[in-house]
Design goal:
The protein has about 200 residues and is α/β, with parallel strands linked by helices. The chain is about 50% helix and about 15% strand. The chain has 9 helices and 5 strands.
Length: about 200
């Protein structure tokens, strides 16, 4: 029986960094919900065809691929459109997560890296939940470095639960505001807390 750790946080908090540490340093298997969401709308999938029907040809390029950034700008400005997109993608993500959980049953630890873990009601898939937090100055600096405008960041955050609400529901907190080394130390501390229930290497 493995241990399933839910990993979540708000936009730009650094969940992927924490997931990578858990995988690289502790051998945890990581289920990346964002990657599963991308797979749901790959060329040739029913998901992509449903996006075409719901939102139009303007979000599909000449080679039949989804224009993700353009679609993202639109849905994060329209709650109704976002809900319609999630209705297309979430069933695929949940089905694939359950398949991988079953397939990796022999792995000591599975990390469920899900940005909308609480919003989508998926926390029941996890034995405990770690919330990655970040101070607002660091968030905006890092996301601007990745090409996001302040307006875009604010709009996306407005579509998610506030960081304080997620913190209140967390079993574990990891503050990713500082250096990578500081984050690594906090992940190490988390693993020490879980050592009694997971036979993980160090």
């Amino acid at each position: 029986m493995n241990y399933r750790l839910g990993l979540t946080g708000t936009f730009g908090s650094g969940k992927s960094t924490v997931a990578a540490i858990l995988h690289e340093h502790y051998g945890a298997a990581v289920i990346d919900a964002d990657e599963l969401a991308r797979q749901a709308v790959e060329p040739g999938t029913e998901g992509l065809e449903e996006v075409r029907r719901q939102f139009g040809e303007q979000y599909i390029d000449g080679e039949g691929r989804l224009l993700r950034r353009e679609l993202g700008r639109m849905v994060f400005a329209d709650r109704g459109a976002k809900a319609r997109l999630e209705a297309i993608i979430h069933p695929h993500v949940l089905a694939e997560m359950n398949r991988l959980i079953h397939a990796w049953a022999s792995r000591p630890m599975i990390v469920l890296d899900v940005p909308l873990l609480f919003e989508a009601g998926m926390q029941g898939l996890a034995d405990s939940v770690a919330v990655v937090t970040i101070d607002e100055r660091s968030r905006f600096q890092r996301l601007r470095a990745h090409g996001f405008s302040e307006e875009e960041v604010t709009r996306r955050l407005g579509m998610q639960w506030p960081q304080a609400r997620k913190r209140a529901l967390a079993d574990h907190l990891i503050d990713n505001s500082g250096s990578l080394v500081e984050t690594q130390h906090q992940v190490d501390d988390l693993i020490k807390q879980l050592k009694g229930v997971i036979p993980l290497p160090r």
